[in-house]
């Protein structure tokens, strides 16, 4: 729909024999679950409003015109083989130009904004607050965007990360991902080669195992602490110190430190520091998959970023549990060298995440404020025992 509706929605279709679609669906399910529901719903509602014949009649084609490099040795052969997209480079340059430049570019295949049928989007929150997306904000939402994500959303999320954990370590960068699910997929693809070993907590979120299996990677389980819960640093130490000399040592440790899925356990603060020290001692990277951070009862726990003095932590966040999962918006905060390779993968896989969901999320944050978001993320418990986040 990029050329006939708007590219910012990131909606496309593949029509193929069912057997092929079945295997594509399996890949999609473990990579990002599904595409953005919001853009799909707006597109479907648009088609319902104008009708199929109306759409076909009105589809008018128009033409517009850093510090120590710790990461490189961990990169997979696939990541090292990827080159930057020249079209994306041109697009990023044009997006960086001030509006008064008024440059008409034919390089990126960007449709003329005048052909976009959507003028504005109005959002009503359950709290009674309303906001509207229109004008320049709507124009940039409907157009192609930077692969790394919407600038306004990245700015807000960096404030949230900074308030939670004023990290003392090396430079980091954040990229918007299509949910934390796709974030972990991008990270693992950038780091893992066939035959590499990934350390995970036991029990572990099952889709992670599907990703590593597809990469022909090995998985080594680290038990959770039987007393306080969360990944057990003693077992991690024992595993690393007794690793067979004839085998390649693990590259990464994957930890879900807050409300670990499926055990629900938290890694205690003292264990987080010990785990990070072991990661440094044995030269690993730590993937902190933390979508349940805001669902923690009691005192907030520090992210592993808080202890990251060497640039070894790769943090994955998600709006699925604190806003809504259908938006498919997540974040990966990592050393810039890794984000660069993730961005190259992203650029050829899907260009960028859905702009509409990013814009609504950014506008929501702008409306309630960063402090308001952190204050109003209230955890409640349903009668079924499941966690429900109420944005009041």
Describe what this molecule looks like in 3D.
By secondary structure, the chain is α/β, with parallel strands linked by helices. Helices cover 39% and strands 14% of the residues. It is built from 13 helices and eleven strands. The chain has helices at residues 18-32, 37-58, 77-81, 86-96, 135-142, 151-164, 179-191, 206-214, 233-241, 269-281, 336-349, 355-368, 370-376, and strands spanning 121-124, 130-133, 173-177, 197-202, 218-223, 252-255, 285-289, 313-318, 330-334, 377-381, 387-391. The chain has a seven-stranded mixed beta sheet with strand order 3-9-8-7-6-4-5, sandwiched between helices. Strands 1-2 form a two-stranded antiparallel sheet. Strands 10-11 form a two-stranded antiparallel sheet. Helix 8 (206-214) links the parallel strand 4 (197-202) and strand 5 (218-223). Helix 5 runs antiparallel to helix 12 (355-368) and helix 6 crosses helix 12 (355-368). The longest helix is centred in the N-terminal third of the chain and has 22 residues, at 37-58. The chain is globular. Mean pLDDT is 84; it is low at 60-67 and 378-392.
Straight-line N-to-C gap: 35 Å
Low-confidence stretches: 60-67, 378-392
What pattern of helices and strands is seen along the backbone?
Answer: HHHHEEHHEHEHEHEHEEEHHHEE
Structural class determined from secondary elements: alpha/beta
DSSP summary, beta strand count: 11
Major β-sheet strand ordering = 3-9-8-7-6-4-5
Mean pLDDT: 84
**Looking at the structure, what is the overall shape?**
globular
Fraction of residues in β-strands? 5-15%
**Share of helix, binned:** 25-40%
Radius of gyration: 22 Å
Number of helix segments?
13
Reported for the largest beta sheet, the result is: 7 strands, mixed
């Amino acid at each position: 729909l990029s050329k006939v509706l708007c590219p910012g929605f990131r909606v496309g279709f593949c029509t193929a024999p069912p057997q092929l679609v079945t295997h594509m669906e399996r890949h999609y399910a473990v990579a990002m679950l599904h595409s953005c529901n919001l853009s799909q719903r707006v597109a479907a509602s648009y088609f319902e409003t104008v009708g199929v014949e109306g759409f076909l009649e009105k589809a008018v084609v128009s033409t517009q015109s850093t510090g120590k490099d710790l990461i490189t040795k961990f990169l997979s052969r696939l990541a090292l083989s990827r080159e930057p997209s020249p079209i994306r480079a041109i697009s990023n340059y044009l997006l960086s130009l001030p509006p008064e430049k008024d440059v008409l570019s034919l390089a990126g295949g960007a449709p003329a904004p005048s052909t976009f049928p959507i003028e504005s989007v109005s959002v009503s929150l359950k709290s009674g607050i309303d906001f509207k997306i229109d004008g320049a904000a709507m124009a940039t939402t409907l157009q192609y965007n930077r692969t790394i994500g919407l600038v306004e959303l990245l700015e807000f999320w960096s404030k949230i990360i900074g308030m939670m954990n004023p990290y003392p370590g090396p430079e980091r960068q954040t990229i918007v991902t299509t949910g934390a699910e796709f974030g972990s997929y991008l990270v693992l693809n950038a780091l893992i080669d066939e035959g590499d070993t990934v350390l995970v907590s036991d029990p572990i979120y099952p889709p992670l195992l599907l990703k590593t299996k597809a990469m022909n990677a090995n998985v080594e389980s680290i038990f959770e602490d039987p007393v306080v819960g969360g990944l057990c640093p003693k077992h991690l130490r024992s595993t690393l110190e007794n690793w067979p000399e004839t085998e390649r040592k693990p590259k990464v440790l994957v930890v879900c430190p807050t409300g670990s899925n499926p055990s629900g356990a938290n890694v205690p603060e003292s264990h987080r520091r010990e785990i990070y020290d072991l990661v440094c001692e044995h030269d690993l990277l730590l993937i902190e998959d933390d979508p349940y951070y805001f669902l923690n009862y009691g005192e907030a726990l520090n992210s592993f970023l808080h202890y990251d003095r060497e640039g070894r932590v790769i943090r994955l966040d998600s709006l699925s549990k604190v806003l809504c999962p259908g938006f498919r918006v997540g974040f990966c905060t990592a050393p810039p060298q890794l984000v660069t390779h993730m961005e190259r993968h992203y650029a050829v896989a899907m260009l960028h995440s859905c702009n509409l969901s990013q814009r609504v999320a950014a506008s929501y944050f702008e409306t309630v404020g960063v402090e308001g978001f952190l204050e109003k993320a209230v955890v409640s418990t349903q009668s079924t025992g499941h966690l429900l986040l109420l944005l009041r």
